[in-house]
Design goal:
Number of domains: 3
CATH class of the largest domain: Alpha Beta
Number of helices: 16
CATH superfamily of the largest domain: Glycosidases
Shape: globular
Largest sheet: 8 strands, parallel, barrel
Radius of gyration: 26 Å
Helix content: 25-40%
Length: 507
């Protein structure tokens, strides 16, 4: 039965009466069986929502596919195929490419229209799942394009230009995505690096991160918005940073939603334990994150749950595994930010809860937080000395695939004194020099700058990162074939930093 006749599946006749065209007297729902269900499953499979067997049995997998379709098309989400869902399915399945000629358009994230429909159709025919064939170039379509480009030995940039179009039309439709044992004909010698930045609001009206994204988006690929905290039962607290999110999307960057366990006491291990150790609360958090990411158009999440108890090591892994399983059908990214360590020390209460190897097997990308070697609550010293960062990287690549690793890059420092510790950045340090005199010094062993000054007779010792110290660390990305960098945080860096990014990482 042609898929365009899908609505007819739901038209029934009263005894002795004519069909009630346009009205649905019966619906399909979980528990339904028969050829009508099989036709529904085939339609959902064509649209990229269903990957199970076309067996005519409306089970939980089919129901979830219906739910996902309803969410994407703004329908009532109930998992039941009634009149509105049936009509939406018919409309979606009726979309056809307007041309079989190679288009001249250049398509990228955010593109819409008939050429995108053609692109999605070709990708689907070749076995590279682009998600729904809806004419919207979203993150799942971008991921499919990149996989195809890698398979054909093209530049992997997620942009469909003349070469990618030509490759799509030169492959017979019977060709399919290679199995895990196959290798692409060739692959780029230098994969594109991820340049990820964290965007925050430190006070009401803070525009630091926003301005950084606006000024330097051409260098960035991904931005994480500091978004949600959690409750002890796995609910989310916080607000969507709309200004930042809308700007990120308008610049064609990947937005990731950050979830954390911060409260008034700092990173709270008890709060994390309450959720991670309880299967019901863990599941609640997974579903809440999935709903938030899909509702607000994020490309995935950045899990920044810090300071967990060593006893929650396996619970954290289980959470990541469940979150990955929930995200996978939608092509959503799972990234995790984890503390730096140069070996797996069971006596280190801050870092032992994070099993590098297991995390690397599950997460799509792993941010190694190679900063706070010396922190505001301890004695003064380098925030990220080169020898320490190098040791961390050497250990990390033995546990995690190197291309998954994003090297944490600090663009801040601390000003320690007997009166307290303050966070500073390179700009602030230059202001201090202008005010209190002296000069910035360089520690050759740590390969970082520092500055000593006196204020009201009190000695201040400042250790910080700047463009020069970070440029040296950027060489580790190439030397160890890492996936890129993760900058904490946007708004604290300066123009010299981005020049170093350009020279060391992007040329």
């Amino acid at each position: 039965m042609p898929v365009l006749l899908l609505l007819s599946l739901f038209l029934f006749t009263f005894p002795g009466g004519p069909p009630l065209q346009g009205a649905i007297i019966a619906v399909l729902k979980q528990g339904s069986t028969g050829p009508q269900v099989a036709e529904l499953q085939q339609g959902l499979k064509t649209l990229g929502y269903y990957s199970g067997a076309v067996d005519g049995i409306f089970g939980p997998v089919t129901r979830q596919a219906v739910i996902n379709f309803q969410r994407d098309f703004g329908l009532i989400v109930d998992g039941i195929v009634g009149p509105q869902t049936a009509q939406a399915l018919q409309k979606a399945l009726s979309v056809k490419p307007v041309s079989t000629q190679i288009p001249s358009s250049v398509l990228k994230l955010g593109s819409i229209g008939s050429d995108v429909v053609l692109l999605q159709t070709k990708l689907s025919q070749l076995g590279f799942n682009p998600g729904p064939i809806d004419g919207i170039f979203g993150y799942k379509t971008q991921a499919a394009v990149m996989k195809f480009q890698a398979f054909r030995g093209l530049v992997v940039d997620g942009i469909v230009g003349p070469r990618t179009w030509s490759a799509l039309f030169s492959v017979p439709s019977s060709s399919t995505l290679p199995s895990s044992g196959d290798k692409p004909a060739s692959s780029p010698s230098s994969p594109s690096l991820t340049i990820l930045g964290y965007a925050t609001y430190d006070w009401p009206g803070d525009k630091g991160s926003y301005n950084s994204i606006a000024n330097y988006s051409s260098y960035l690929t991904t931005v994480v918005t500091f978004t949600y905290g959690i409750t002890a039962t796995g609910n989310l607290t916080g607000e969507i940073p709309w200004d930042n999110l809308n700007l990120i999307k308008s610049r064609g960057l990947k937005p990731l939603l950050l979830v954390h366990n911060l409260d008034s006491s700092g990173f709270n291990p008890d709060l994390a334990h309450s959720v991670l150790a309880n299967p019901a609360y863990r599941s609640n958090l997974v579903q809440n994150l999935l709903q938030a990411v899909r509702t607000y158009g994020y490309a995935g999440v950045n899990v920044d749950i810090e300071g967990i108890y060593p006893s929650d090591r396996s619970n954290y892994i289980q959470f990541l595994r469940e979150l990955k399983n929930a995200f996978a059908p939608y092509g959503l990214l799972l990234t995790a930010a984890i503390p730096a360590k140069d070996y797996d020390n069971p006596y280190n209460s801050w870092s032992y809860g994070y099993d590098y190897k297991a995390i690397g097997e599950i997460a799509d990308q792993v941010v190694i937080m190679t900063y706070d070697e010396h922190w505001f609550g301890g004695p003064p010293g380098p925030v990220a000395s080169l020898p320490w960062v190098t040791r961390v990287v050497k250990y990390a690549v033995t546990q995690i695939p190197s291309q998954k690793i994003l090297l944490g890059i600090a663009v801040y420092g601390y000003d320690w004194s007997a009166t307290g510790t303050q966070v500073v950045n390179a700009r602030k340090v230059n202001q201090l020099v202008a005010t209190y005199g002296g000069s910035i010094q360089w520690d050759n062993t740590a390969s970082v700058p520092y500055y000593i000054y006196y204020k009201n007779g009190v000695r201040h010792e400042v250790w910080f990162e700047n463009a020069y110290s970070n440029a040296i660390k950027f060489t580790l990305v190439r030397d160890y074939n890492l996936g890129g960098i993760a900058i904490w945080k946007l708004g604290d860096e300066d123009a010299d930093f981005w020049q170093a990014v350009k020279e060391k990482l992007l040329q």
